[in-house]
Write a structure and sequence with these properties.
The structure holds 2 protein chains of 2 kinds. By secondary structure, chain A is of the alpha/beta class. Chain A has helices at 51-58, 86-92, 104-107, 114-126, 130-143, 149-152, 162-174, 192-209, 220-226, 244-249, 254-262, 270-275, 302-306; strands at 9-20, 23-35, 40-44, 67-76, 79-80, 97-100, 180-184, 212-217, 229-234, 237-243, 312-313, 324-325. Chain A has one domain (9-96, 178-342): Rossmann fold, CATH 3.40.50. Helix content of chain A is 33%, strand content 22%. Chain A is globular. Chain B is an all-alpha fold. Chain B has 2 domains: 2-84, no CATH class; 107-332, MetI-like fold. Chain B has helices at 2-29, 44-54, 60-84, 104-139, 144-158, 161-175, 192-229, 232-239, 244-266, 268-282, 287-296, 300-328, 330-333. Chain B contains 13 helices and no strands. Classes of the chains: A alpha/beta, B mainly alpha. The A-B interface holds A 59, 61, 63, 86, 90-95, 98-99, 101, 103, 106-113, 117, 120-121, 124-125, 156, 158-159, 169, 172-173, 175 and B 230-233, 235-244, 246, 251, 254-255, 328-331, 334. The complex binds adenosine-5'-diphosphate (ADP), iron/sulfur cluster and magnesium ion. Adenosine-5'-diphosphate (ADP) binds next to β1, β2 and α1 of chain A. Adenosine-5'-diphosphate binds at residues 18, 20, 25, 27, 45, 47-53, 66, 283 of chain A.
């Protein structure tokens, strides 16, 4: 770490298991990462790789049963959130950690006004009275670029478009000035032009407010433009982690390399983008004993079937600080390739 | 909201007229109807009044209009007169019951309150029991509470009220002697003593009806709550740091109430039907007993009127349901 300050969020060895009728699903396996103050960490991985489950585990948002957190630590400002009781967690959620979800069409309650939903965290966490909360709500709506904010407090979600609703969700998440904002694929459900607007908004808010952000996406193209650092997830594990330029210039994991190859197709139809990597992420019935990517990997060898690769640094730093990868194979030194131009 | 309500109200009126026409024609065209032949057992003075009130010799559309006039003009006038001691009705002819020889409305007016009190109390009790059970069962899905609740409501819903009613009478009235075996319709609650008497005689029928309805209602509440508990907005509410209480009893409940309101209001006709059986079992001299008695002696004016009053109640509760939807769900009232 350049400035040596403690990270605002430090996750160590997180394990989340779903106990279902069909047996256990090990959705998150020994995931460790940290988030520095004011930093934007991009989390990439295709659908089903465990991104959402990881983030929801942090603040106890998964229903239990079936979810069960089997181990690890989630240190927010040094305090382990996994040790908190319900009440303690409620004081963290919405106050210190804001969450924006993927689908703005269903994430707001259809039967309450936007003002009501926006004022709830303000009243609960900041103890504002009705008038103060309403004033702050107007400020927040203006902050996320919703015109005529005071009148809009009385509007209902169905009177807003998807993009506008996602702005409201962002306003709700930011209501109490959280230290950490977790945005779980906030633009995936939106049109391309609206996506771009929301991205711009977040960049702007980050400048203004300076909170740390975790931005989840399955789209590396989005990450390139906004992230400081990127974590690639696959099969419930972190398979590669690096500063954004480094990752694009020198991708190590075969999965990351395959993902990067898909970027040029971004302007093409959506199906084409996803088809580039054959196969699907595995559903893990137990703690992995082999590399989860092996079924799809072109560099697979004996060791990959015997041993789940641990994360190793490739630049001599501690794992998690610089560039690390979880793979038994060593990528050749970067040649001037087409995708390197992205960084 | 006001325009929405007015619109609903305007829709209710033609519905009611259509139903009234159907009921009128069904009875009017049936053999033994007031129009074709007034039974010979009917005394001549009743017969004369009926001919005047209903225009027996007029063509069918006039008879229908006269019949409507009875409901919406003549009878309300009599009701006002009775309430304020005025004399607006001025002796206008009324529909008379063939068997009891009093105006049908007066006859029904005596019987209906008994039924409404028993059904109403039973339904309110059912709602008060079912909602908390349904909510908690859903919130703690598959817990022992939920499992027991599921079992009890399965049993409660699958055993008919005439059976539970008889069982209750045998156990609590015959064996234990806790409750009176006859329902005294003429009991008037004037003091504490008569109030206790009224509660005691209502207890078993209300309990039997309430349990039956609560069983069904708690199932609907549970499934509506379950569906909404897993919605994204519930997760958003939790992510804001709201307490479980607020998440469940504010966010989820409000949304779950929409299907539950449907079951409550639109289930009422079935409750009426069930109440007729219950009235027989508990010997309550209410509207159900009146209806069955009237059918036996071919007292068509009473049958016709009870059928229409039931229809009015159904349309009324549909209207109530619509208005409640509008209150609960902005998407409905803003369209
Ligand atoms: N409620 C659940 N019950 C059982 N398994 C689940 C549940 N939610 C998620 N999972 C499992 O966790 C895996 C990771 O899911 P998720 O974190 O949502 O992926 P991502 O967000 O990366 O698309 C999924 O493949 C799925 O098998
Ligand atoms: S560990 Fe083996 S199978 Fe897994 S990504 Fe690396 S080379 Fe491929
Ligand atoms: Mg996800």
């Amino acid at each position: 770490m350049a400035d040596g300050a403690a990270p605002v969020l430090d996750v160590k060895g997180l394990r989340t298991v779903f106990r279902t009728r069909g047996g256990e699903i090990h959705a998150v396996n020994d995931v460790s990462f940290h988030l520095n103050r004011g930093e934007l960490l991009g989390v990439v991985g295709e659908s089903g790789s465990g991104k959402s489950v990881t983030m929801m585990s942090l603040i106890g948002l998964l229903p239990s049963p079936p979810a069960e957190i089997r181990g690890g630590q989630v240190l927010l400002d040094g305090r382990d959130l996994l040790q908190l009781d319900d009440k303690g967690l409620q004081e963290v959620r919405g106050a210190k950690v804001g969450f924006v979800f993927q689908d703005p069409m269903t994430s707001l309650n259809p039967v309450f006004t936007l003002g009501d939903q926006l004022m709830e965290p303000l009243r609960k966490h900041m103890g504002l009275d009705k008038t103060a909360a309403a004033n702050r709500a107007v400020e927040l709506l203006e902050l996320v670029g919703i015109p005529d904010a005071r009148r809009r407090l009385k509007a209902y979600p169905h009177q807003f478009s998807g993009g506008m609703r996602q702005r409201v969700m962002i306003a709700i998440a930011l209501a109490c000035d959280p230290d950490v904002l977790i945005a779980d694929e906030p633009t995936t459900a939106l049109d391309v032009t609206i996506q771009a607007q929301i991205l711009e908004l977040v960049k702007e808010l980050r400048q203004k407010l300076g909170m740390a952000i975790i931005w989840i996406t399955h789209d590396l193209g989005v990450i390139a433009g906004i992230a400081d650092r990127v974590m690639v997830m696959y099969g419930g594990q972190v398979v590669e982690q690096a500063p954004v330029r480094e990752l694009f210039a020198n991708p190590q994991h075969p999965y990351t390399r395959a993902l990067l190859k898909t970027i040029p197709a971004i302007s093409g139809p959506r199906e084409d983008r996803l088809k580039v990597i054959q196969g699907q992420p595995p559903i893990l019935a137990g703690a992995p004993t082999a590399c989860p990517f092996r079924a799809r990997c072109e560099h697979r060898h004996d060791r990959c079937d015997r041993e789940n690769p641990a994360r190793r640094a490739i630049d001599g730093q501690t794992v998690g600080q610089g560039h690390d990868v979880a793979c038994h194979w060593s990528a050749p030194a970067p040649a001037p390739r087409a995708e390197a131009a992205h960084a | 909201m006001l325009t929405y309500t007015l619109r609903r109200l305007l829709v209710a009126i033609p519905t009611l007229l259509l139903i009234s026409l159907v009921i009128f024609l069904l009875v009017d065209l049936a053999p033994g109807s007031p129009a074709s032949e007034i039974p010979l057992t009917v005394p001549p003075e009743v017969k004369a009044k009926m001919i005047e009130a209903m225009g027996i010799n007029e063509p069918v559309h006039i008879r229908y209009l006269l019949w409507l006039k009875q409901f919406f003009w003549t009878e309300p006038l009599y009701a006002i007169d009775a309430a304020f001691g005025t004399n607006y009705a001025d002796g206008a002819p009324r529909i008379i019951s063939y068997s009891s020889k009093v105006p049908v409305m007066d006859y029904i007016g005596e019987r209906l309150p008994q039924t409404l009190i028993v059904i109403g109390t039973a339904y309110v009790v059912a709602i008060l029991i079912a909602l908390p059970i349904g909510i908690y069962s859903a919130y703690r899905q598959y817990s022992w509470f939920d499992q027991v609740g599921t079992f009890v409501s399965m049993v409660g819903y699958s055993v008919p009220t005439f059976f539970t009613g008889l069982l209750a009478i045998i156990i609590f009235t015959t064996w234990l002697g806790w409750f009176p075996s006859i329902y005294n319709t003429s009991l008037e609650v004037v003091d504490w003593e008569t109030f206790k008497q009224q509660v005691r005689q209502m207890f078993l029928p209300v309990a039997v009806l309430a349990l039956f309805n609560a069983a069904e209602l708690s199932r609907y509440t549970r499934s509506a709550m379950l569906e909404n508990l897993s919605q994204d907005y519930a997760r958003t509410a939790r992510a804001k740091g709201l307490s479980e209480r607020t998440v469940v009893l504010k966010h989820v409940l409000r949304n779950s109430m929409i299907p539950v309101i449907t079951v409550i209001t639109l289930g009422l006709p079935a409750v009426f039907a069930g109440a007729i059986v219950t009235e027989q079992v508990f010997k309550i001299n209410g509207i159900g007993a009146a209806l069955i008695g009237a059918i036996h002696v071919n007292d068509l004016p009473v049958v016709q009127t009870i059928a229409f009053i039931t229809a009015i109640l159904i349309v009324l509760f549909n209207l109530v349901a619509d208005i409640l939807y509008g209150i609960l769900d902005p998407r409905i009232r803003y369209d």
